[in-house]
Amino acid sequence: MGKEHLSHFRRCENGVMAVEFAMVAPVMILLMLASVELPRAIMTGQEVSRAARTMADLVSRENLASLDDVYAAGAAVADLPLADLGIVVTAAGVYSESGALVAKVCSIKTSNATGLAVKSVIGPAPPASAEAGARYVMAEVGYTYKPAFTIIPALMRYRFSNTVQWPVRKGTTYKGKPEIVLPNGKPCE
């Protein structure tokens, strides 16, 4: 009787589909969740970039007594909570030092982030402002991503950040150049 049961068990095909489904279902579920999470993450990165561009553009237009409206506009364009954004807005000047053009911080304003100190070197002058005495605005926005699903470990606590350098459009003229002075800041020296 034992050999008959084994022989019958070997030929039996009942439940094969259930086993196949049990093997394929987790993979299909992971693919479905990833097809939601990855586009959402890409869109969040684009929103952070859009917020930085918006803030740089708004600040470059004129001196403002407060940047609260600029921060709110950046958060609205990005469709992200303002409290979750790390924002650094910098008014910078370009100086000639040892034959090289160097950008330095003239005034700075932050929200939920830390920035460089006034007179700190930012780095080489951006190509659009590559002349001594040039002035520009720089907006940096950072956001720690909050995934809807925790299936992709690389996205857990991933930080999107974007820095935009924008030429001064209007501003107060100091030393013959239009310049933006951020709230509680001073013009470039």
TrEMBL record:
Residues spanning the membrane: 15-36
Top-level taxon of the source organism: Bacteria
Domain TadE-like: 15-56
UniProt keyword terms in alphabetical order: Membrane, Transmembrane, Transmembrane helix
Family annotation (InterPro entries): TadE-like_dom
Family annotation (Pfam families): TadE
Protein name (Swiss-Prot/TrEMBL): Pilus assembly protein
